[in-house]
Design brief:
It holds the Pfam family HIT. The protein is of the alpha+beta class and 112 residues long. It has one domain: HIT-like (HIT family, subunit A, 2-Layer Sandwich). The protein is built from 3 helices and 5 strands. It starts with a helix and ends in a 9-residue tail after the last strand. The mean pLDDT is 98. Bound molecules: adenosine monophosphate (AMP) and zinc ion.
């Protein structure tokens, strides 16, 4: 499959890995929007949140617990933001489900 993030998981494209287990892969965003900005992705290729179903319930819960763990490992003791951009109107540019974790500065609301 011609997917950038599947290639990163396979090691065919280099990345700055922060964590990996049997279900997820975590790496630094190449274009950080905050002092800390990493992505949590399932190893299973899923296009977006819109393709999630009941079978993915445990996986998504695991994604959030890993996001919290790595956020703490990266020193985000004062909070952080988890973002998922879904499909065109959500601003998704890579069609492999991913959750951004941003921190190290105060976030603004609402997003653009
Ligand atoms: P989204 O716009 O939500 O689809 O987010 C895609 C994210 O992937 C962006 O924040 C990009 O900076 C990031 N990205 C794209 N290519 C790479 C790469 N090779 N390594 C790490 N992050 C990447
Ligand atoms: Zn993929």
């Amino acid at each position: 499959m011609d997917c950038l993030f599947c290639k990163i998981i396979a090691g065919e494209i280099p990345s700055e890995k922060l964590y990996e287990d049997e279900l997820v892969y975590v790496f630094k965003d190449i274009n950080p929007e905050a002092p800390v900005h990493f992505l949590v992705i399932p190893k299973e290729h899923i296009n977006s949140t819109d393709e999630l179903d009941e079978a993915h319930k445990e996986l998504v819960g695991h994604v959030f617990l890993v996001a919290k763990k790595v956020a703490h490992d990266e020193g985000l003791t004062n909070g952080y933001r988890i973002v998922n951009n879904c499909k065109e109107d959500g601003g998704q540019t890579v069609n492999h489900l991913h959750f951004h974790v941003l921190g190290g500065r105060s976030m603004q609301w609402p997003p653009g």
